[in-house]
Amino acid sequence: xxxxxxxEYFPMLKSREEIRKNIxxxxxxxxxxxxxxxxxxxxxxxxxxxxxxxKMLYDAFAKAILDPEKYxxxxxxxxxxxxxxxxxIIKILPNEGMRIAAENSLLVMDIVVKLKDGSIANVEIxxxxxxxxxxxxxxxxxxxxLRQYKTVKAALDEEERFSYRYIxxxxxxVFLEKSGKLFAAHPEQYLHYFExxxxxxxKLDLLQKYIFxxxxxxxxxxxxxxxxxxxxxxxxxxxxxxxxxxxxxxEKHPDFKAMYQQIYTLCENLEDxxxxxxxxxxxxxxxxxxxxxxxxxxxxxxxxxxxxxxxxELEQKSNELEQKSNELEQKSNELEQKSNELEQKSNELEQKxxxxxxxxxxxxxxxxxxxxxx
Length: 374
Prior knowledge:
Elements: H1 5-9, H2 16-24, H3 27-33, H4 38-49, H5 59-65, H6 72-83, E1 89-93, H7 101-104, E2 107-115, E3 120-128, H8 133-155, E4 170-178, H9 181-184, E5 192-195, E6 208-214, H10 215-220, H11 230-239, H12 243-252, H13 255-266, H14 270-373
Parallel strand pairs: 3-4, 4-6
Antiparallel strand pairs: 1-2, 2-3, 5-6
């Protein structure tokens, strides 16, 4: 039986035939496996056998690999690469119910950590980019900033005075598996940094910083990315399930092999893996529905805007027609008035003509009488 390329690097991977046989021999696994669509069955067999790589942005895999309690060095490195300075996680903070239930299904990972310098970083991996990403992130950033302010004040001794210098940066870092239209408008950029600035050049540390990483845009030109760059290597690790990319990555950076091996070890327990995969499919279904709703709402908003524009144009045309109608009515009234004046003038002229004819007739009669007298 021919090995897949990944089986050569990860010998614990079984063949598709072996996996299928194990499933068919166990009723509980058979029931779950055949409840999936054919496409999903093939996808499961592909990544469990190494025919395709695993998707590290699956909820369970991302949480296992980037768990800041077990493997703080991994998230430390990613944050250091993104922030351009060495950082160290010293504490994991609770989310305190920050995310509403409707949003949770779209989040692969949502971790709030405190860094060594006192800064706070909220790291998210989103399956599908939310509508209004700027407004949303600004709200959660403000919430984290306020939490930090309250925590710092509460920790002070009674004699110690509060100072705003104790308040440190708040970073909101969002990885997007499917980034959406806003990011697609910048197809060459896969790192977006935001912070508040002044139009005068005045420098104030306003504390709130944002980083958006659309992984789908990074992957569109993955063959051209220099993975000797560690950040590029991490993005390839997170985003690609292509066996060729995985092999290229672990040959360039052998430390990534342990992370893949961690996931492939999970594949040895088919029951657990099928449970994780079923959860992932349920999340995918919810995401699809949410994405379609957002898309439909965008379309409805667009149609409303277009309809409002058409109504505005029609109203303008109606006003113009009404104005033209009023002008025509005014012209008609003026013409009628002119016609009446002309008719009056004509009557006056006719009366004058009649008077003139009567005068001429009278003169003729007088001339005739004079002639007869002579």
